[in-house]
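Bench log. Compound arrived from synthesis this morning; before running ITC I wanted a structural hypothesis for how flavin-adenine dinucleotide sits in the protein. Inputs:
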Amino acid sequence: MATQLSGKAPRRARGEVLHDGFLRHAGFRWLKAATLICILSIASYMLVDVTPRHNGGSWYGYTMGTIGVLLILWLTLLGLRKRAMTRGRWSLKAWTSAHVYLGLSLIVIATLHTGFQLGWNVHTLAYALMMLVILSGLFGITVYATLPAALSNNRAEMTQVQMLDAVRAIDRQLHDAAQPLPHDKAALVRQSLEQDPFGGTLLSRLSGRYPRCATAKAQAALRHWTGDQPDTGNDPLERIDALLERKQAMLARLRRHLRLKALLEIWLYVHVPATFALLAALTAHIVSVFFYW
Amino acid sequence: MTDRVRIAIVGSGPAGLSAAARAAQLGLSHLLIEKTDHLSDTIFKYQKGKHVMATPSQLVLRSDCDFEAGKRESILDRWNAQAAEQGVNVAYRCEVKAITGTGDPIPGSIQKIVERKRDGTTDTKEIQRLAPPYRLSLSDGRDIIADAVIMAIGTQGNPNLMRVPGADLPHVQYQLDDPAAYNDEHIFVVGTGDAGIENALGLAADEAQGNAVTILNRSTEFASAKAANVKALMAAAETGRLSIMTEATTAKIEPGFITLDSRDGEVKLKCDRIIARMGSAPPRAFVESCGIEFTSGDRLAFPKLSPVFESTAPGIFVIGALAGYPLIKHCMNQGYDVVEYINGNRDLKPADEPILAAKFAALPEKKSVDQWLEFLRGNVSILEGLSPLQMREFMLDSEVRAYRKGDLIFEKYDPGSSLFGVAQGQALVEVSPTLNVPIDQGSIFGEVGLISGRRRGATVRAGADSIMVEVSRTAALKLMSSNPPAKRAITRISTERQLLQLFGAGLTPADLTEVLDTAEIKTVKAGEHVITEGDTGTDIYVIRVGSMIVEKKIGGKNVFLSYLPAGSYVGEMALISGGPRTATVKATVKSEVIKLNGDAFARLMAAKPALLERARRDMASRQDVNAFIESRKDSFSTVVDMYSETAKFLVDNGIGEATDVLLIDEHLCVGCDNCEKACADSHDGLSRLDREAGRTYAHLHVPTSCRHCEHPHCMADCPPNAIHRGPDGEVFIDDTCIGCGNCQRNCPYGVIRMDSVPPKKPGLLSWMFFGQGPGPGEPSKKWRYKNAEPGVEKPKKAIKCDMCSGIEGGPACVRACPTGAAIRVAPEDFLTVARLDREAN
Ligand SMILES: Cc1cc2nc3c(=O)[nH]c(=O)nc-3n(C[C@H](O)[C@H](O)[C@H](O)COP(=O)(O)OP(=O)(O)OC[C@H]3O[C@@H](n4cnc5c(N)ncnc54)[C@H](O)[C@@H]3O)c2cc1C
Ligand code: HEM
Ligand code: SF4
Ligand code: SF4
C-alpha cells in the first residue's frame, strides 16, 4: 500500500476499523463462553447424582442457584455501566455482548437449578420473571439486529427535529393557503394544523397506523369536494390538496421514524421493570428458602 | 480647514484609545480620529452581552483606561466615560483617507507597492517617501497636520460596497446587528457567503416578524459558503420561509424598490431594506499607501516595525491588531508604550517583559531577556532576519528549554506540529536502532510535523547538553510568512529530510543534491489531478501537505484504489516499468506536492540499488492492489462499486483532511444517543457531537463531530492562539479561548459550538435512586437556567471534540456505544482494500 513515513497512533490497534457489532464481538467470544457454561452445566447435571432427585435445595442446586443469582446481579449492573462514564479501558459493546450470551445461558443454569420442580409459589414466580426478562431481551436483540438499517434508510439524513420542522413549515403554508376558504372547509384544515405529530396511542406508535389522522381526513374530505370539479390550476383547494399531500408524506416518514424508534425502545420498558420485579422476587425466594425451609 | 497636533491617532479601538488617553494624560496635543460615530467599532460590533475576556492573564495592563473581563456593554461604557474624563479629543465620523509627508523627500526611501491583479499579473508602483510632519486627509474634507501618527485601525477593513445607482441610499446597509429589529419588511440580502446566508436566515427565522426575505445570487451555486449554511438556506427556501433568486444582480436601487437583472430580464421589486454582505477588503492597500511596508507579499504578513512599533515611514507607528497583536490587553499596552516613546521616554520596558523573563528563568545561564533574545537570534539560522520586536513576539508564542545529553525531546509517533531550533548543542535523530543522525547548532528539526500535520517520524534526543527553541505551529507560520529567507530555508530542509525519511536510510543529503535542485513544490487544488491515467511522464510526486486518492478506470467507471496521506509518494510505476501512467492521482483537499524530476530520480536509483529495490517493493504492493481490484471487479462488481462510492462519499465529507474521525455504522446504531450522553458526561456536561445530524452513505454516517483535520481551518484566526494539536493528535481548544467565535465560522464542518459550562449535576446514583438532577447527558436549557449559580456569569466559549484526550480508555463515545456502531478511524486505515476483501466475503 501507500508508503508512509508517519505511523499510526499506537493507541489504536490495527484492524479495529474492521469493526464488529455487539453480537459478533471479538469473534463471538461470549457466545463461545456461554455455550461452554451450558455444556458444563448440563454435563454436570447428568453426572452428579443427587438423591432422591435434583432440586434447588441440594448442594448441586445451591451451587447452580448461587451462580444464577450472581449472574443476574451482574446482568443488572449493565444499566449502571451504561450510564457511569468512568475512565478506563472498558467498552459497553463488550459488556452488551457478554450480557446477551451469559443472559441466555441463564435459561440453562436456572432451569437446572430448579431441577424441573415448578409450582405455584414465589420460587416459580422468580423463575417466570427471569424468563420474561430473557424473552424481552431476545426481542430486544432481534430488533437491534434488524431495525437500525431501516431507521437509517427512512430518515434519509434528516434528523427528527428536521422532520418536525418540515411538518411545521408545511403547516405554515397550509395556514396561509386556508385563509380564503369558507368556514367549514377551513375548520378541517385547522384540525390538521392542530394535530400533534407526536400524538396518537401507543398502539398507533408501534404499528404506524393512525386511523384518526386529521390530515388524512382533511384530505379525504377535500378530495370529496373537489372530485367532480376540473383542475383549473388556481383553485386554493388544489394548492391545499398538494400541501396536504406533502404533509402526509412527511408525516408518514416521521411516523415510520417514531415507530422504529419505539420498537427499538419499547422492550426495555418490559426488560428493566421486570428486572426489578425479578430482583424483588429473587430476594423473597432466597429469604424464604433460608428462613422458612 | 487644517488643524495641527503633535500626535494623530487613527482608529479608536483599544489600541488607539489607550494611546489617546496616554497623550491626554501627558498633556500632548492630540486627535483621536474614528471612522464611525462611536469608540472602538470592533468591540462595539460584538454580539450583545458578549463576555469579553482579558487574556493573557499573566500580562499586566499598562493603560490609563481600565480593562478587565466583563460584558461588552460595561467595558464600552467605562471607556466612553474615561475618554471624556481624561479629556481625550475625538473626531467621530471621520475616516482617514490618506496620509502623506509634508517635509522633504527622504533620500533613498522609496516605497514599492506591488498590486496583484485578478488575472495573476502584478503592477509595481514606486512612491518617494516625504519626511514628517504628516498631512492626514479626512473624509469630511478636513486636513490634520501631525508630527507623529499612530495607526491603530485594526484588521477589519472596509466592507465591499455596492456599486449601482442608488447604492448610497440610507436603506442599504452593510451590517446586521439584530435580526429581530426588523418587522414586516421586504428585505434583500446581497452576497452569498456565510455572513449573507446567516443574515438571511436570521431575518426569516421568526415568522412572526413577517419579513419577506430574498437572497440574491449572481450565479447558481453557493460556492463560498459552508455546506451546513447552504443546506439550511435550501431547507428554509423549500419551506417557503425565504426566497433565493439565482442568476440575479442588482441594477438599480430606489427608495422602496430594487431593480434586478435576472434571467427573465429586468424586474422591479418592492424593497424596504438591502443588506449587502459582500466581504470586506483588508486595510493593507490603505496602509501601504501611507508609506508603510509589509514584511512580505503573504496574505498573513504584518507591517515591518521597529522595536518601538515605528513603521518604515518615520514617525508613523503601527499598533494593535494591525501590527499583529489581536488581544485587547496587548493593544492597550502598546498604545501606552508608543506614546511614552514619542514623548521621549526611552527606558520603558515592554509590558510583556515578565512573561519572557519567566520563559528564560529555567535556563541554566543567567542572562537578561534582551541578551537571551539576541542569543537565540544569533544562534538559530532561521531567526536571523528577525527584528528585535519580531523576536519578542516570536518568543511569546515559543518555548525555550535546556536538555541534558541523552534527554528525550520527542518520540516517534508523538503528534506534534512544532518546529525545533538548536540554539546550542546538538540533537540526535534516531533514524534506525543503529543509526543516529546529528543535527547541529543553528539548524532545525521537527519540521515535518509542522508541514504535514502528521505524527513525528522519528525519536529525537539531545546529543549534548543543549538549548532548544520549540516554535509553535502558529509562530512558525508567522515566521515563514513574514520572513521569506526563513521560509526558503525551512522548505529546503524539510524537503530534503522528507525525501531522506521516505526513501530509507541508505541515502545521504549529498546523494539528493541533484534531485533536490530539480525539485519543485506545487500547490494542487482539491480535485485537481497530479497524475492522469494514460498520460506519459515519469516524474515522481511526494505529498507534502494534504492527501490524494488513486483511481483507475475499470469498465468505464472510476474505481477507488487507495488513499494516500501526506508523506506518501506516487509515480514510481511509470518510471520503473515504463509505459503510460496506470492510474489517476488527485487531491482530496488543497494539497502541496514535491515534484521530483523523473530523470534525476532514475539516475539516483541507478546509483543506489537499495533505493531501486525499495521502490520496486512499493510498486509491487501497489500492483497487487490493482490486480486485486481487477480480479474482484467481475465477481463482485457491486461490492467494488460500493467501495468506490463509499470512499468518494467519505472524501467529499472531509475525511481526506481528517486524521481521526467518528463514523457511525447505521446497520448497528439503535439511536439510543448514549454516545452523546457519554460525551457530555465526560466533558463538563456539554456534548461535542451531534449524532443524528450529518451525511450518510450506504449506512455509513459521518456525524457532526470534529475530524481533527490535518490542517485545522479552525486554527487559522484565533486571537489568543487557543487551538492546538495535542499529544494524541487531537485538535483541542484550551482555557484561554476568548469566545470570539472565529473558529466556529472557520470550521467547514460546523462542529464547533459556543456555550458556557452548565451547573454541576447530582451524581448518577442520586439520579437513579432518588430522581435527583437531570440524569445522564447534557442537561436541558431549562434545568441549566433553574440551577444556575445566581449572580455568576459564565462566559460562552468554543467547545469541540478533543478526542477525550487525557481520559484513560479513549473516546467516551466509542466506549459507550452498546452495539459497536460508533467507531473512530484514521482515513488511511479505513480506506483500504482490506475492507473490500472483507465485505466481499
Ligand atoms: C467577535 C470577536 C470577539 C473578540 N473577543 C475578544 C476578547 O474577548 N478578548 C480579547 O482580548 N480580544 C478579543 N477579540 C479581538 C479584539 O477585539 C481585537 O483584536 C481588538 O479590538 C483590536 O484592537 P485595535 O485597537 O487594534 O483595532 P480595532 O478594535 O479593530 O479598532 C479599529 C478602529 O479603527 C477605526 N478605523 C478603521 N479604519 C479607519 C480609518 N481609515 N479612519 C478612521 N478610523 C478607522 C474602526 O472603526 C475601529 O473603531 C475579539 C474579536 C472578535 C472579532
Ligand atoms: C435475567 C437476566 C437479565 C437481566 C437481569 C437483564 C437486565 C438488564 C438491564 C438492567 C439492562 C439495562 C437496561 C438499561 O438500563 O437501559 C439490560 C439491557 C439489555 N439487555 Fe438484559 N438482562 C437480562 C437478560 C438479557 C438477555 C437474555 C438478553 C438477550 C437475549 C438481554 C439483552 C439486553 C440488551 C440488548 C440490553 C440493552 C443494552 C442497551 O441498549 O444498552 N438481556 N438488561
Ligand atoms: S474543528 Fe473543524 S476545522 Fe477544526 S479540526 Fe475539527 S473539523 Fe477540522
Ligand atoms: S478558540 Fe475559537 S472562539 Fe475561542 S478565541 Fe480561539 S477562535 Fe475565538
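What the model suggests: The pocket of iron/sulfur cluster (ligand 3) is lined by residues B 706-709, 712-714, 731, 747, 749, 751-752, 800 (CB under 6 Å). Residues 160-266 of chain A form one domain.
ITC booked for Thursday regardless.
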